[in-house]
Design a protein that fits this description.
This is Zn-dependent protease. Its cofactor is Zn(2+). The chain is an alpha/beta fold. The protein has five helices and nine strands. It is globular, with a radius of gyration of 23 Å.
């Protein structure tokens, strides 16, 4: 009889102990896939840098696509550059179903219609929400101090435009990477998303 009581007592103690153990939260097995699409851009080390940096910044998996050229209809002959809005539409049409968003990277100058101007040069463009964006090094490199500085700038503009795809607006916090560039390079001193933008992020 004593052995039975002892067994019941031990079972009760062990059961209570298991109830008090914290339950581990499992991370999702499959992170959203983002496709980096080089457009007239053959800088492989920079693409690898972007892949590693973006995966540290957002909980996504980055895949690098094969080099492609801009389709002819995106070219804007009067200014010798490419229409970012047309390029985004074209990227979306070729986006695999399994991919959350496609990010075009180019060295060519790109533009869009903005602030009443039909052809306004931009560093990048991404719609909110969306599943494609495009970023150019053309304006970023003009005042970059070094190749590494250019890469860091490119990365920040990339995650900014991706942020729009992930449903983020421009942020009034001047230290947030979603701050409105206002046609200037304002991201040099910015390192990440503010708390508010992190909470609004929709991957």
């Amino acid at each position: 009889m004593q052995r039975i009581y002892l067994f019941v007592f031990l079972f009760f103690v062990c059961s209570c102990g298991n109830r008090n153990k914290p339950i581990a939260i499992k991370e999702p097995k499959n992170k959203p896939v983002i496709l980096l699409q080089p457009l007239s851009f053959n800088d492989s080390p920079t693409l690898v840098f972007l892949k590693d940096s973006i995966e540290q910044f957002y909980p996504v998996t980055i895949e690098i696509a094969k080099l492609q050229q801009f389709p002819p209809h995106c070219y804007y002959k009067p200014r010798n550059r490419y229409r970012a809005d047309s390029a985004i539409k074209w990227l979306k049409q070729g986006k695999p179903v399994s991919v959350r968003a496609i990010v075009g990277i180019t060295k060519e100058d790109v533009s869009t219609t903005k602030s009443g101007q039909v052809d306004f040069g931009v560093m990048g463009l991404g719609y909110k929400p969306g599943d494609a964006c495009i970023i150019s090094t053309y304006r970023l490199k003009k005042t970059a101090n070094s190749p590494q500085h250019l890469r860091e700038r490119l990365f920040k503009v990339v995650v900014h435009e991706m942020g729009h795809n992930f449903s983020l607006n421009h942020c009034p916090d001047q230290q947030c990477i979603m701050v409105d560039a206002e046609a200037k390079m304002k991201l040099d001193g910015v390192k990440g998303l503010c708390t508010s933008c992190k909470q609004k992020l929709q991957l």
